[in-house]
Amino acid sequence: MLNHARSLLANLEPLNSDDGAYLAEEIIDPTFVPLTALPSSIAAVRQALYGSSPDREMINYRVRQIMTVLHAGPLVYWALALDPRVTYDTGEDPSLLDDSAFGAVVHQLSGSAAEPMIYGELFSPDSSGRVKREYLVDVVSSDLATVSDGVRNPGFTLSFDGDLTAPLPLAGSGLFVRLRSNQPGASWLITVKSRPTWQLGDIVEELALLGEPLLIDLCTLKQEEPWVTLRNIWRDCKESPRTLSAIGIATFYRMRLEMEARRG
Predict the structure, then answer these.
(1) Distance of CA 30 to CAs 7, 21, 79, 138, 224, Å?
(2) Is there a contact between 38 and 258 (Cβ–Cβ < 8 Å)?
(3) b vs e for 61-87, b when ≥16 Cβ sit within 10 Å of the residue's Cβ?
(4) How much of the chain is in helix, strand and coil states, percent to nearest 5?
(5) Where are the beta strands (DSSP E) in 11-99?
(6) Distance (Å, rounded) from C-alpha 198 to C-alpha 125?
(7) How far apart are CA 153 and CA 202, in angstroms?
(8) Quick one: how far is CA 162 from the chain centroid?
(9) Whole-model pTM over 0.70
(10) How many CB atoms lie within 10 A of CB 241?
(11) Which sign does the torsion angle of CA 239, 245, 249, 250 carry?
(12) Which residues of 182-192 are buried (b: 16+ CB within 10 A; e: fewer)?
């Protein structure tokens, strides 16, 4: 299967042509079917890697980090052993380095009011796994606006401080919006993308919190390769790139075993 190791590590649905663009998206074989109801060890490792409730953007970003470091070392042999056909980026992807890929973008949906001001400091999405958030800001009346994130739809009394309203929070992002007008019927869609901030060492530290028994369970007790090498690396290696590579390999090989078991 094309990009076999990456597809198993990401465990994402293949995209249709009309699904839109995602950060760090790569080709997924159209026959690939993601696994659900994962075993506890795999689920725990995925949460440590991607966050508690990861979106597609977060999974893509973190998988890019893992596959890049994996391809820079000798353990890549075990990734290519599944299928040597690789189309994904294994180097410095400009879309991940350019600050323009992150931040807030405002689209006016209705009304003629001037574009609002966005300010604040973006929260790190690593723990939550939410890189992308969207907010619908709607001026209901001259003294009331709502800010919906798709789950919550709180209302805020509008009061002005000079030419701008008091700050309205974009919940979960660390950002605030200040309107330049209280024109009823004006509305905006604000899309926020937060850059993950964890480096390799941070990810390995998060994995270490799971405890050695769980990570050993991930690597199975089989006395064959690559499992023996992966267990030894986790127990003895102090190098973050090699340790993270080993966990990546263990994860997609366990996913492969699980997939084969379910097929019978």
Answers:
(1) 11, 17, 20, 39, 32
(2) yes
(3) bbbbbbbbbbbeeebbebbeebeeebe
(4) 35, 20, 45
(5) none
(6) 9
(7) 34
(8) 39
(9) yes
(10) 18
(11) positive
(12) beeebbbebeb
Q: What residue type is assigned to position 198 of the chain?
A: W
| DSSP-based three-state secondary structure for 195 | coil
**In whole angstroms, what is the distance from residue 153 CA to residue 137 CA?**
9
Residue at 92: amino acid letter:
E
Sheet with 175-178: list strands edge to edge. 117-120, 175-178, 168-170
pLDDT digits (tens, 9 = 90+) for 35-46: 999 999 999 999
Q: What does the block give as tokens for 112?
A: 């003629």
Per the listing, tokens 């590579």 go with 245
Q: Sheet harboring 187-193: ordered strands across?
A: 103-110, 187-193, 132-141, 144-148, 155-157
- 10-residue stretch averages of pLDDT, the chain, 264 residues long: 92 79 87 93 96 96 93 93 86 69 95 94 96 97 96 94 95 97 96 94 94 87 90 88 95 93 83
**Interval 105-134: pLDDT, tens:** 999 999 988 999 999 999 999 999 999 999
Kindly state the tokens that stand for 246: 């080993």
> Do residues 246 and 240 make contact, with C-beta atoms less than 8 angstroms apart?
no
At residue 168's C-alpha, the angle toward residues 174 and 97, to 5°, is: 30
Three-state secondary-structure class, residue 131: coil
